[in-house]
Structure formats: structure tokens, C-alpha cells
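Wed. Picked up where I left off yesterday with DUF948 domain-containing protein. The coffee machine is broken again, so keeping this brief.
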Amino acid sequence: MAAAALWVVLVAATAVVLVRLTRLLKDARRQLTGIAERAVPLLDQAADDLEDARRQLGRVDAVTSDMHRIAAEVQQVTSSASALSATVNSTVAGPLVKAAALGHGVRKAFGGGRKPQQQPPNPRRSRG
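Structure written out below (C-alpha cells, as returned):
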């Protein structure tokens, strides 16, 4: 009879373990179902955000390439303006300097230049 009682206790303990294991598996299944239900919308949102980021990067690339093109055109305009300035300088400045020198020479030749004014004596120097 002792063997039968030990056998009953062993079967009862095994039944308790199996009932608890069943509850644990049911809870785990519910948790996994809940996680899956929440994860799918999150993954969809992440995919949408990733697509938006890809589109924005495409726009940034377009703006960057436009800025490089604009910078090259500005550099070309700057070099053209520099060349134009040098051309104007060599075309206009040389003859203007020569005309000014000629005018100065003619004035000196005819005595039309101003005579230097005499400065009044400095009162501080004469005291000494």
C-alpha cells in the first residue's frame, strides 16, 4: 500500500507541474500575440519613416548638386568680372594717367601752376 500511495503522490505532483506548465505556455502565447499585434504597426510606421527619409535625402542631394553648379557659375562670373576689370583698367587708366601728366606738363610750361604760399612765422619758434 505504501507503494500505491507513493505512486498517487507522484502522479499528483506531475499533474500539478503539467497544469502550471500549461498556464505558463498560455500566458506566453498571449504575451507573444500582444507583442506581434503591437509590433506590426510599429514596423509599418518604421518602413514609412524610412521611405520619407530616403525621399528627403534625394532632395538634399538635388539641392547639393544645385549648389555645386551655382558655385561653379559664380566662380565663372567672378573670373569674367576680373578679366573685364583688368581690360577696363588697361584701356582707360593708361590714357588717363598720360592725359593728367600732359596737363600737368602744359601747366608747368606756361607757368599756370600755383605758387606756393609763404607760411607765417611760427610764434613759438621766434621766442627762443
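Quick read: The chain has a mean pLDDT of 86.
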